Amino acid sequence: MADAHIWEVRSPDGGMLGMEVARSVMQPAERVLGHAFPQKVDIEIRDSEGNLVAKGEGLESHEPIPMARFVVRGGTVQREQTWPDNSDYGSPVILPGGEVGILKKWWNAEDGSEWRWEVEFYNHV
Fold this sequence. Notes:
Layout lengths: L4 E7 L7 E8 L4 E5 L4 E8 L4 E9 L6 E7 L2 E6 L10 E3 L5 E9 L6 E6 L5
Parallel strand pairs: 3-8
Antiparallel strand pairs: 1-2, 1-4, 3-6, 4-5, 6-7, 8-9, 9-10
């Protein structure tokens, strides 16, 4: 992937230098979802040559919601803890460990007690 972006997601709270949560390679995207990320993360996005594209430090949430929406804008990354909606369909989703899928469907109970989702995983080498 010549025009790929590499997302490095770390928890600053683990160990002396933090702990890696996910390292993902994907096509450039302005909106990316993250599933089951720690309360606080640092994110660096680099292009395929290693140049820094955007970063966010101390992106924190205290919401008991398992999904985060990350928005890349002007060299920064912002975090919003939220339930996905129809506008998120087609967005990449990073899972802990770094696997990336595409959100196809989402439903959650209004009280947040349950949710159901479909994510598509595809690879072409």
